[in-house]
Amino acid sequence: MADGTPHLSLEVYPKIADIGQAAWDGCADCDNPFISYAFLSALEDSGSVGKRTGWHPRYAVLRDTGGAIVAIAPAYAKTNSYGEYVFDHGWAQAYEQAGGAYYPKLQIAVPFSPVPGPRLLCRPGLPAGAMAAALVQLAEELDCSSVHATFCAEAEWQALGDAGWLQRLGTQFHWENDNYKTFDDFLGALSSRKRKVIKRERRDAQEGLSFKALSGTDLTRDVWETFYTFYTSTVDRKWGGAYLTPEFFPLLGERLGNQIVLMIAERNGKPIAGALNLRSRDVLYGRNWGSTEDVPFLHFELCYYKAIDYAIAHGLKRVEAGAQGEHKIQRGYLPQPTYSAHWIKHPGLRRAVAAFLRTERQDMAETMTALAAESPYKKNGETG
After folding, report:
1. pLDDT tens-digit profile of 185-242?
2. 103 and 138, same domain (yes or no)
């Protein structure tokens, strides 16, 4: 292979079942649920990835001379740029206006999930550069214009940069648990004005409603059918098309039930809103939400404050509340960097994107500094 490891051979699989759960999770070797066999197979088996959405699985596998799988990457040949949350539509448009074909491209990602985590799933001792070289090889074989590893781990971002890939910075908003014992402990860390705002929002959102968190065997098919109406209500308002099929959520419940935390709001015993979270040992990840009633501040209560409640009660270190949303800062979620890396075949497009990303990285760093200055937490020495 190009990175100097000829003892490794590349194989490509259009079905994750052909790789098998033991081999996949043996390489993933972490408890981030989004890169697990269970999550990715539920996407595939439910028809959420495939021709309908333009995410065509091309899972990359490296084997050693003995035939053992030593590295895997969740790779998809893409015929569009939807469901990625790291936007390259401008790159595609510029390249195609110049007469090039931007699609297909190779996406190394968790479909429809802007959740940071490992993307180059290598067994201990194997350098990430080996998979980087393999992905370039795969892109060449599939006649892809480019490779995009989005929401990758920082160490992977550095390794891919060392391998000559272009580096991109983004930001999300995460809540950190500073050993709080109660929600009031968290509120006590905020300035007085911010505490008052959150208390008012929670009071208004909770009026006339009851709440519960469902996991494991609580996640019945009826529960998922109800949640799907919430999911589609949000999708219809924002995008007009649902990536995830009705079959996805029950499959997810079967395969990751104990790592699911489904927050439900009810009025007189009837569910009116829901927020889907997945959890690892230390992190609660917010994903999809929706409601059938327009209740002031209910989105904040169900997606942000209930997540904090849960994290404190279960001793989790962090809540990652998904993509975008500067409004999260005033609710205790502070900016954190996210990372992606890009290999582009065409020299002209590569130069143009490299110049764009140099400016964008500087702008992003300045933006994150400015956003962090809006923190609602007390400054050193501040009381009240």
Report:
1. 999 999 999 999 999 999 999 999 999 999 999 999 999 999 999 999 887 555 556 8
2. yes
Q: How many domains does the chain have?
A: 2
Token pair for 166: 């272009």
Q: How far apart are CA 81 and CA 346, in angstroms?
A: 18
- Are 286 and 321 in contact by the 8 Å Cβ rule? The answer is yes
Tell me the CA end-to-end span of the chain in Å, nearest whole number.
Answer: 62
CA distances from 80 to 46, 55, 57, 77, 239 (A): 20, 8, 14, 9, 15
Same domain, 144 and 208: no
Q: How do residues 227-277 score in pLDDT, each as one tens digit?
A: 999 999 887 555 556 899 999 999 999 999 999 999 999 999 999 999 999
Answer whether residue 343 is part of any domain: yes
Question: Domain range holding 361?
Answer: 9-171+336-372
Calculate ∠ Cα 224-230-236, nearest 5°. Answer: 130
